[in-house]
Write a structure and sequence with these properties.
Length: 145
């Protein structure tokens, strides 16, 4: 692949990621000028807390994770929040795009977005709450007399 077309392929993935961020309602996202070589690190700049590094290549390289981590350390307020976005080259373009991040960060995202176990109190909890309220009223009444 020619270097120019390789750059264009990378830019297409960066543009796709920016559009996906905006479509999800996460704010404005733009490709980083110079693709992370300037003051702003990463390939996509947005309100998302993560430094975003995009790779649109035939083979996965572990050094890409190192690059994403390095760019987060150098240019992100959150030094440990990085994400590597890759696409599956075996599939048509953008049919299979994946985000790779640190397991700890993934678990934090799950914890942050987890819904409460009990959305509404069940009958037994309601009965106990009513009895607790009645007992509190009785205690207050006894203290006032």
């Amino acid at each position: 692949m020619q270097p120019k077309s390789a750059q264009q392929k990378g830019k297409r993935l960066e543009k796709y990621v920016c559009e996906a961020i905006e479509e999800m309602g996460l704010g404005k996202a733009v490709r980083t000028p110079g693709s992370g070589s300037g003051k702003i690190k990463g390939d996509a700049f947005s309100a998302v807390d993560f430094t975003i590094e995009c790779k649109n290549q035939k083979q996965f390289h572990w050094q890409d994770i190192d690059q994403a981590k390095k760019e987060a350390r150098e240019g992100n307020y959150y030094k440990d929040k990085w994400v590597l976005v890759i696409r599956d080259p075996r599939k048509p373009e953008f049919d299979s795009v994946y985000a790779m991040l640190d397991l700890g960060q993934f678990l934090e995202l799950l914890k942050k977005n987890q819904e409460p176990k009990i959305k509404e109190p069940d009958r037994q909890v309601i009965w106990h709450l009513k009895n607790l309220i009645q007992a509190a009223k009785t205690i207050i009444k006894d203290l006032e007399t």
